[in-house]
Amino acid sequence: VTALAPRDVVRLEDGAVVLLDQRQLPDMEVELECRSAAEVAEAIRTLAIRGAPAIGIAAAYGYALAAQNGEDLVEADRMLRSARPTAVNLAWALDRMRDEPTPQRAREIQQQEEDDDRRMAEHALELFASSPHVLTHCNTGALATGGYGTALGAIRLACERGRVEHVWVTETRPLNQGSRLTAWELERLGIPFSVIGDSAAGSLMQAGRVDIVLTGADRIAANGDTANKIGTYGLAVLAHHHGVPFVVVAPASTIDRRLADGAGIPIEERAAYEITSRFPAHNAAFDVTPAGLISAIVTGAGVHRQPFSFA
Ligand code: MRU
After folding, report:
1. pTM
2. Is the sign of the CA dihedral 34, 38, 40, 45 positive or negative?
3. CA 76–ligand 1 middle distance (angstroms)
4. Which end of the chain is more exposed for a tag (fewer CB within 10 A), N or C?
């Protein structure tokens, strides 16, 4: 078992934010060095690093680097904050860096996120009592968090405790975070899994071969409405139809208490060429799952049930 350490995913070195370039996985393990806030923002925009908690941590390191470089910090904040619109973690992390733009502060943020991940995994254990067959979407592991993982961290711990037999990994079109990144992480961890086409989830549930669905989140509104990778909403509808628990696992940094509900969450639209280089395409990167379809939201504070409130 060769689990990724948080610093393998993203870290600050002398004069550079160093990150594992997720665009090249699983074929090549290549590190990317970003030497300015602009380069970190570009790495976030182009998905060299992705996943809501991980981009927050990368932005924190990028801001600390900008301070060390003597860059204009107002401009650095603006570039990093606007690199991607949906995950609230970018703003959350940068708000924490403003008073103290130091490497130490950014490392504390990464450590806090990892600690939160481990608490979530412990809390989530109770949900796996009789759920040996798990389905997950996108990538929510160490790669997405720079820590232990959210939904995938919960699956990992449940597997260690003998509560998971098999994981269904949705491909997660168009950029295949499931078949490239989650599959790569599960293989390293020695957890049994199969990749499935996104469109296969319904028939697996119909056949009774999915006991629980776990996903992460990019932003959770005060009422529990949850933005996550495109396709999450469809999985929640299917799970509801088939009586399968649908669980969101996310750290405090992903909750946006200022938004009453999911209608206010900005949804990123990415370039058409990510879907087809020839035809017109609509490429919304996220969707919003209404709170009513979510059985439980697990945070570091515990397992939240409906009606959700995150005081
Ligand atoms: O476009 P991505 O790969 O950044 O999307 C990531 C997701 O949707 C994850 O599920 C989410 O960030 C939660 S990660 C712990």
Report:
1. 0.98
2. negative
3. 23
4. C
